Amino acid sequence: MPFGNVSHHEIAYQIVDGAEEFDSELLIDCRHMRRTGIPIPEVAKVPRQLLVSVELDDGDVDVKGTLLEDAIHRRRFCGEASFDFSHFIKTFQEIGFDSFYSIEVMSHELCALVSARRRALRL
Length: 123
Known about the structure:
The chain is of the alpha/beta class. It has a domain at 9-62 and 77-104. The chain has five helices and three strands; from the N terminus they run H-E-H-E-H-H-E-H. It has helices at residues 9-18, 30-36, 67-73, 85-94, 108-121, and strands at residues 26-29, 51-56, 100-103. It has a three-stranded parallel sheet. The mean pLDDT is 80.
């Protein structure tokens, strides 16, 4: 995560690789890769056996607020902003990834919709 202690993919690889006796795996989040400036071809360097899941979401080119605020309040559904998903997913397919993709969307806009839905269901 660009705002945490594991701020680069190489650090994550070292942690997982160093935990050989444990069942350690990586979850790759396209947003965090984009925000840390990791080029998409770097995905191909992820050892397939370490990769358990890929998280997808979209976002604006420019960070709004801090990196943390941007990550938890301004995510968008895939295809609604600026991230290049086709190249990202194609790269994972090329290394043989055939497991889970998930959509992670957190935003003020969606929280308001969830709140409105809950209110409506109380009637």
